[in-house]
Amino acid sequence: MPTQVLFENAEHKNLLLEDFTSGRMVQANQHLILHNGKAMLLDPGGHKVYSAALEELSTYVSPSALQYIFFSHQDPDIVAAANGWLMVTDAQAFLPQLWIRFITHFGVDDFLVDRIEALPDQGRVIELAGSKLAILPAHFLHSAGNFQVYDPVSKILYSGDLGASLGQTYVTVENFDDHIQYMEGFHRRYMSSNKALKLWATMVKPLEIEIIAPQHGAMIVGKENVQRFIAWSEGLACGLDLLERVYRLPRV
Ligand code: FE
To answer: Which residues make up the environment of ion ligand 1, defined by Cβ < 5 Å?
Structure first.
């Protein structure tokens, strides 16, 4: 799938970069937000997508104009190539506070680690060349320290693993009911609890959202499908809610 433009006006552009995942890697999406010549890269992925993603990004913006790199959480499909991205750009990265002390195990050099800013639990607002972006708490959805990004210009909510789907062949959800089958197993096992989903739903309901763009699988497009996804999440039992099924001694 080639790079897609999700939103564009005179000074603002949102791109879903070409999919460079391959083989047995979990499919993962890399997103780029551009504003007035500056860029923010979201969840850039692991080593095997790094050079292709960098090359693709370079066709839209010089790597030196990459101002921010956002790491929603600590998983390898997000942070594994952190050192490379920090080496070839001057970007400032953001990572949930909980994971700062772990990321050096992925080989982030001491002299680069100071360019990774710890995000406090409550999130924050950042400015990309004057355009405000909200970093929203989404802890335990799934990671214990986990954030999403809401862009009020494009009205895209970059939802990380929430809303992820696996195994579908399309990039945009047309039929929400039919799409549930591709999200359900992942959400029931990886998301931590219905309590976190309910808190998230209450938090995002006041936002005007046109697209929910997860880090894996298809995007949920249009206000109606977005509302349906929020309602579905709010009612979903997952994680801790279902643990009785697996907490049993294996037979020896
Ligand atoms: Fe993850």
So the answer is: 75, 161
